[in-house]
Design brief:
The complex is a heterodimer of chains A (about 325) and B (about 170).
Chain A (H helix, E strand, L loop, with lengths): L4 E4 L12 E2 L5 H6 L7 E4 L9 E4 L2 E5 L4 H5 L2 H6 L1 H8 L4 H6 L2 H5 L6 H4 L41 H7 L3 E6 L2 E6 H4 L18 E8 L6 E7 L10 E10 L2 E10 L6 E2 L1 H7 L6 H11 L11 H18 L13
Parallel strand pairs in A: 1-3, 2-3
Antiparallel strand pairs in A: 4-5, 5-8, 6-7, 6-8, 9-10, 10-11, 11-12
Helix pairs in contact in A: 4-8, 10-11, 11-12
Chain B lengths: L2 H4 L11 E7 L2 E7 L5 H8 L18 E4 L2 E4 L12 E3 L7 H8 L9 H14 L5 H7 L10 H12 L5
Parallel strand pairs in B: 1-5
Antiparallel strand pairs in B: 1-2, 3-4, 3-5
The chains are: A alpha+beta (about 325), B alpha+beta (about 170).
The complex binds flavin-adenine dinucleotide, iron/sulfur cluster (SF4) and FE2/S2 (inorganic) cluster (2 copies).
């Protein structure tokens, strides 16, 4: 890690237009220890008390960007109104890390691609134009959807998978004022510029995340499949939220994690389910639509079938959320 | 492979020594650190509080767990300068029935993960979110034990916590 100067910001104007912000530090300091980030000034934003609250707003709930993941997941408004979000957050990292990690930092965490972390391996995300070591390398935990010939990395956040399903909005503040970004437009696909993870502009601070009125409190589930049952990143994760009338689906939301450079949602699959019965076959047909165009690489082609099965399983678990086990594991 | 194109250049030291005061185990401790010193390194290398262990230094093992304002955190992924004003409790400052329970249940072999396990268990019991044994396991997953004493560790915690244990 290089040395740097450290400042504690007291007001928003100390922050906007500057870099590099540190909130929980759990991703940034890790990257700096690997010399993958080399900020020469860290601006500690934790004292910006305006962005710590979780509060009701006219059309929903506002999550402060600096509230911790744990405080968010266990907040009674979040637990009662957006249980899907609580589950997804609690499936991520460890209890210690969730006590430190902030909502803003979670959205901006970088990929866990092995080659990105290995400063000796070519990687277009780390050094644009150097090549991608994963495409022909060991690519078991890489993407199967939305990849490019420049990068096949996966975006690892669990929280974001639920935020995607819930149609959250990210509020940011920069030198040009404030703006709100729909969740689906926040993260981006790698294309020819895999070094850019998302559409936040340099110097912009995430101030809050808004959750709209639609809460899905009855039928929801978050499933996370991984190599050990806790404290590991997802191979595949699924957030399902259903609105039912009897056994007829009024509205369905399905978002996938672990498959792409951003949370993956396919609106056609959700429309397909609208008006259908809550049958396994219908969920299977929706899963096929979601995985259309998926391409596997040497070690991760299994993820295509795994994702389909996870979608079906998770939509069935959403019919009775009490069947979910701690840590977003499949029901017995 | 042309490593020249893959290595980046890093800024030379721009930060200067800072005088900070940390509140640790109820005592004010003054120290002079560069900004990049982690809380873990401050404890071990500057304050001689070597009970807190360094396993991975990357947030992956939990050996460095301490309590910060009563909540368990990993001390390797935060900076000493970020914790001015916070109340830090390390294993040296813990006096809790879980310690005797670890002995009674043989909840360690080499003992390297133990300080982190105990701080984490105290934090978890204070959080009060884990009810069943499965939930306790999930809530303790941030602390790895490479000796494999995990079953006994969970037994010790369940013993102190009380309640259902199937
Ligand atoms: C061992 C380990 C396991 C993990 N497992 C999981 C997992 O299973 N699932 C999962 O989802 N996550 C996992 N994580 C990632 C963890 O959730 C993130 O590290 C954390 O959410 C980042 O938040 P932070 O506040 O610590 O961010 P920081 O490290 O402080 O910041 C991250 C980035 O965001 C920027 N930033 C922070 N806040 C703002 C803001 N308000 N506005 C603009 N920029 C900002 C920083 O400049 C930096 O670039 C894991 C992490 C570790 C270390
Ligand atoms: S997949 Fe992306 S992050 Fe991984 S090596 Fe290729 S370019 Fe780098
Ligand atoms: S040393 Fe901090 S988590 Fe391993
Ligand atoms: S007792 Fe040896 S690592 Fe846990």
């Amino acid at each position: 890690m290089n040395n740097f100067s450290y400042q504690r910001a007291a007001t928003l104007s100390d922050v906007v237009g500057k870099s590099t912000f540190v909130a929980g530090g759990t991703n940034l300091l890790d990257l700096m220890k690997y010399n993958l980030s080399n900020a020469d000034t860290l601006i500690d934003v934790n004292a910006l008390t305006d962005f710590h609250a979780i509060e009701e707003v006219p059309d929903g709930l506002r999550l402060g960007s600096l509230a911790t993941n744990a405080d968010t997941a266990y907040d009674s408004l979040v637990e009662n109104r957006y249980p899907l979000l609580s589950k997804a957050i609690l499936a991520g990292a460890s209890a210690q890390i969730r006590n430190m990690a902030t909502n803003g930092g979670n959205l901006l965490q970088r990929t866990r691609c092995y080659y990105f972390y290995d400063a000796h391996a070519p990687c277009n995300k780390r050094v644009p134009g150097s090549g991608c070591s994963a495409i022909k390398g060991y690519n078991r935990n890489m993407a199967i959807l939305g990849t490019s010939d420049q990068c096949i990395a996966v975006y690892p956040s669990d929280m974001s998978v639920a935020l995607s399903a819930l149609d959250a909005v990210v509020n940011v503040s920069g030198l040009n004022g404030e703006r709100s970004i729909a969740f689906e437009d926040f993260h981006r696909l790698p294309g020819d510029t895999p070094e850019i993870d998302n559409n936040l502009q340099p110097g912009e601070l995430i101030t809050s995340i808004d959750l709209p009125e639609k809460t899905f409190t009855k039928n929801y589930s978050y499933l996370k499949l991984r190599d050990r049952s806790s404290y590991a990143f997802a191979l595949i994760s699924v957030a399902s939220a259903l609105e039912l009338e009897g056994d007829t689906i009024q509205e369905a939301r399905i978002a996938l994690g672990g498959v792409a450079h951003k949370p993956w949602r396919v609106k056609e699959a959700e429309q397909y389910l609208t008006g259908k019965k809550t049958d396994r076959q219908n969920f299977a047909a929706a899963a096929d639509i979601i995985l259309q165009g998926a391409v596997g690489f040497e070690h991760n082609a299994f993820k295509i079938e795994l994702a389909k099965r996870a979608i079906i399983r998770n939509c069935i678990m959403a019919l009775d959320p009490s069947t979910q086990l701690p840590g977003a594991q499949p029901s017995a | 492979m042309h490593t020249e194109t893959l290595t980046q250049t890093y800024p030379v030291t721009t930060g200067t020594l800072r005088e900070i005061t940390l509140r640790i185990n109820g005592e004010e401790r003054r120290l002079s650190v560069l900004p990049y010193v982690s809380l873990l390194d401050a404890l071990r290398e500057y304050l001689d509080l070597t009970g807190t262990k360094k396993g991975c230094d990357h947030g992956q093992c939990g050996a460095c767990t301490v309590l910060c304002d009563g909540k368990r955190i990993i001390s390797c992924l935060t900076l000493a300068v970020m914790k001015e004003g916070a109340e830090i409790t390390t294993i040296e400052g813990i006096d809790h029935p879980i310690q005797q329970a670890f002995i009674d249940h043989d909840a360690f072999q080499c003992g390297y993960c133990t300080p982190g396990q105990i701080c984490s268990a105290v934090g978890m019991l204070q959080e009060g979110k884990a009810k069943s044994r499965d939930e306790v396991k999930d809530q303790m997953s941030g602390n790895l034990c490479r000796c494999g004493a995990n079953q006994q560790i969970i037994d010790a915690i369940m013993d102190v916590k009380g309640g259902e244990n199937e």
